[in-house]
Amino acid sequence: MTRMLKTVTLGIAASMAVLFAAPAFADWPDRPITIIYPWPAADPTSVAMRTIGELVSDELGQPVVINNVTGAGGTVALATAISAEADGYTLVSNWVAAQVSARLFNPDLPYSNDDFVAVAGVFAIPFTLTVAANHPANDIAEFIEWAEAQGRTLNFGVCAPQSVPRLIGEQFMTVADIPYNPIPFSGGCGGDNVTGLLNGTLDASVAVVPLINAFGGQIKHLGLLTDERHPIDPDLPSAAEMGYPVGWGGNAFGWGGLAALSGTPDDVVMRLQDAFGAVLTGDALASELEGNVGAMISYIPPGDFQEMWAESEILLAPHVQSILGSGN
Taken in order 117, 123, 128, 130, is the CA torsion positive or negative? Predict the structure, then answer.
């Protein structure tokens, strides 16, 4: 056999070997998978993620462990995640608060959208316009009418100073053309902002639907700061229905999901996407999670979810710049 023929024969053999070889990560996963989760273990979404992890374990044949890494509005979790190997064994729950709004307020954070690849959108939490139970308004339209009659700047609770609910709440007030003084609280949407409603220092506040369970008849939600109604309270109308659309679609939610690290092998990413997609759209999860927790689950396919990261950044950026410019 001539040298040329040997070379051609060896080349064909090598090509066939590559063509029919098993994928490089065919045996993945062969050890537990960790999800770095940014909220405390007792948080309702954390409880839901543990349930999701248990079901995904059945899909992948390996344990899925939830590691609660809290602090700085979720940014500690994302900063921790980017130091891991891009092998699919470490995922992070990436919420809009940490991945988008926190970076807009603080561009020096050590990560960006490019550091992650979407696995699935998991949560969508709508925000509410909320007042004290004795407020004369019973819906958003009545609130606007009441506000216009006051002839003054309203004190408006906006949760934490650099929060997503603040940005969405202020977008609503801008659309409604109501003069307001934003009052942020370090306790988020379920603390001092509600106390302010009860003692009269706030006229209204951004909140979340489940607070009704905690405060009973002391507060009332006037509507969702969304463009559509939501299963978390189907009877609660949206701002858009009342003629005051926030206009941000799915970006007007506190969204959260799952991401792998950029550089994770494509076949591993696809296995993760398929496994979580199957669980998030399956009947088993719906039967496990009921009430408000179950209603917060909103599966978004990975391609759409990754697009949301950039869309949310575009929508939130002008409002962050306005806040930074005003010193509030």
Answer: negative
- For 162, list phi and psi in degrees, rounded to 5: -115, 45
Q: Which of 122, 174, 139 is nearest to 318 (CA)?
A: 174
Length of the chain: 328
**pLDDT tens readout for residues 147-179:** 999 999 999 999 999 999 999 999 999 999 999
Residues 117-144 have pLDDT tens digits of: 999 999 999 999 999 999 999 999 999 9
Rg over alpha carbons for the chain, rounded to the nearest Å, is 24
Q: Which of 294, 245, 258, 301 is nearest to 278 (CA)?
A: 301
Kindly report, residue by residue over 85-102, the tens digit of the pLDDT: 999 999 999 999 999 999
